[in-house]
Amino acid sequence: MALDSLVEDEVRMKFVSGSKEKAQNSFNFFQRSRNAILGAADAVLRAAAKGTFGDDNRRTEALLATANGMIWTGCANGLLVQWDGNGNRLQDFQYHSFAVQSLCTIGSRIWVGYISGTVQVLDLNGNLLGQWVAHNSPVIDLAVGAGYVFTLANHGGIRGWSITSPGPLDNIFRSQLAGKEFLYTRLENLKILAGTWNVAQGRAPDSLISWLGSAAGDVDIIVVGLQEVEMGAGFLAVSAAKETMGLEGSSAGQWWLDMIGRTLDEGSTFSRVGSRQLAGLLISVWVRNNIRGHVGDVDVAAVPCGLGRAIGNKGAVGLRMRVYGRVMCFVNCHFAAHLEAVNRRNADFDHVYRTMIFSRPSNILNGAAAGVSSAVQMLRSTSVRINPAEGVPELSEADMVVFLGDFNYRLDGISYDEARDFVSQRCFDWLRERDQLRAEMRAGNVFQGMREAVIRFPPTYKFEKHQPGLAGYDSGEKKRIPAWCDRILYRDSRSASVSTCSLDCPVVSSILQYEACMDVTDSDHKPVRCIFSVEVARVDESVRRQEFGEIIRSNEKIKRLLEELAKVPEAIVSTNNIILQNQDTSILRITNKCKKDKAIYEIICEGLSTIKEDGQASDHRPRGGFGFPCWLEVNPAAGIIEPDHIAEISIRHEEYQTLEEFVDGVPQNFWCEDARDKEVMLVVKVRGSCTTEAKCHRIRVRYSITGKLTPMNRKGNNPNPAPANLLHRSDIQRLGSCDVVDHLRHLHSP
To answer: Inositol polyphosphate-related phosphatase domain location, by residue (predicted)?
Structure first.
């Protein structure tokens, strides 16, 4: 009976010829394994269809209502969506591929904070006005106050940005600072060792010394990618099920991590900063202890490419991190097997490149990287065609990307014997012309924009285990043609090979060594390693701040603009007295009389009072941090008014439900504000673009409930006496902080 070729290709089950009974048992085992994998794939796909993890990148992360009545949402894939007040989806905007973490609005502008640390400013129509890197950590919250928008980073850092950013001064500062870039630019030199090995389910601790230990002496970062750490139908099914629940790893994977750590002298010399396993794929990154403080924001990702894009026997695992403030991504891949499956291998790469989404936190390290990128991460030049509906691939925005793994590309148009002869004569130039990967890259079908060093080592597949030398190539019945299946490719920040390292081209790499460890015989693949010399440009923030201050002090044009922007624009408020009844809405108009400067306004509640029976208001009590009382809605309470324009603010009484308490027989709400007529004093603070000074306009807002009876103004006897737990006014004491301390001291005195 012929076996299903697709399943044979995916599972790579190996049969040993024997007796008829053995063959039947092998076939039954294959059938059970096939059913287990198909069942797991079906469960994974059903979970994805329900949104367990398949639509996770479209998850809403932030929500915002703007002054024009629209609703904005930010998604985990960086998508911004505009909705109307009825919940109708109006427009989608995609300006960044990283997850949205926070949103805020001020006047006619929307501020967006991303997990990458980037901040963007949009207008109410969704047009991008500006963007920059605010932090080297996710921007988890945004707040407006005193003429600034404050950004809160995941590591606890807070920075303030002018509410008018991007503004007229930005281009001047940018131009002036660019001229002094050489003063605050620092170049850091690193060595990165990247290694890939298909271990064929074996365990070979001694071979790690030959592969990694012998080359780790003077490198700073070590990236290890393993394939086929563990396989088998049962393991693949369990692994797929674990992935749906957010679980990963295996005992075999942990064994390899422990052995690599022992080889690299983990703890005293190197530290593992992150790892990720998907079925038989495992990636781990190790950093020398003396640069660990410059490495952070470690994220991991996994993309299955096996049966139904759900099983992890083929696919990729990735790790992303910041090194000296620059983003580096490392991706360990295992693509479709067999000589004729070129298109499937190309499709596997395309699927990994487009869909790999990194998620925080990593399982080891998520500290903040030292230094902050001085420029917004831009989409790197590549010929990969991107569907705008899918968003920009995260891998495309990294400063450096390294792909390593068992890509499974073979040699075309050559026989087994011919290949063996060319290998024995070390005629690698002719063999390279037969390399499928080289041909597909030339045609622009795969690994677009990436580079590989010249291959000067023999093909690394397929060998008989424990057979030394080139005589170990497959001599069995199938006689698989030798091939360079195991490869390491990379891309840095350069758009041309002559680019030098600078803040505009922050990562430049060259290859010092690209070789296979032919003496290792524990697998049918040979391990491959590549050593990169990497130059990283970073900003010395202390010097940059000094130069920034010098520009402000010495540049006359900037000083003149700052003086003009520091002036508080003349503003007129339409009224200073508002009376509300029922749910009436009153419109307060603020007019910016200035012809060229924007006015920034903010409305706060200075205090509130209640109206006594004789119509007199009690003294205004400060509201402290409570903001507006529950019965009053002011919208928008802050904003930007363009020159010679008018802002309209809606002020209305808001109905609300309260738990009724009683003080002196009068029903109270949970703020302890009674149900009689109420009055608040609103303060409209108007500022200029670059000043904290403000002109204040006070507005008295009174809410009248004329016609509604309360226990205080009813005639005759009160048919509903106050409850027994009535709190009388005489029992209330107003205590300052010193009084509270004195009371506490007396409680403990003998």
So the answer is: 188-540
**In 373-493, alpha helices (H):** 416-424, 428-432, 436-442
HEC secondary structure over 395-421: HHHCCEEEEEEECCCCECCCCHHHHHH
What Cα–Cα distance (Å) separates residue 214 from each residue in 183, 303, 516? 39, 32, 13
- As beta bridge partners, residue 194 has 223, 530
What residue type is 672 in one-letter code? C
Name which of 120, 121, 133 is nearest 539 in CA terms.
Answer: 133
Q: What is the pTM of this model?
A: 0.68
Please give the torsion angle defined by the CA atoms of residues 258, 261, 266 and 271, in that order, rounded to the nearest 10 degrees.
-100
The CA distance from 750 to 737, in Å, is 23
How are beta strands 646-653 and 632-635 bridged, if at all? antiparallel
Among all chains, which residue has been given the structure tokens 């603020």? 590
- Distance (Å, whole) CA 155 – CA 297: 10
Q: Which tokens is 59 given? A: 């998850």
Q: Which amino acid is at 285?
A: V
Task: Tell which residue, 66, 155, 161, has the closest CA to residue 120.
Answer: 161
Residues 396, 399, 402, CA angle at the centre, nearest 5°?
A: 75
The 10 Å CB-count burial string (b at 16+, else e) for 580-600 is: beeeeebebebbbebeebbbb
Do residues 128 and 141 lie in contact, with contact meaning Cβ atoms separated by under 8 Å? Answer: no
Categorize the per-residue pLDDT at 246 as very low, low, confident or very high, splitting at 50, 70 and 90: confident
Q: Give the pLDDT confidence of 354-369 residue by residue, as tens digits.
A: 999 986 433 333 333 3
Of 618, 639, 623, 610, nearest to 705 by C-alpha is: 610
Cα 205 to Cα 208, 221, 264, 660, distances in angstroms: 6, 20, 12, 73
What confidence tens digit (pLDDT) does each residue in 260-276 have?
A: 999 999 889 999 999 99
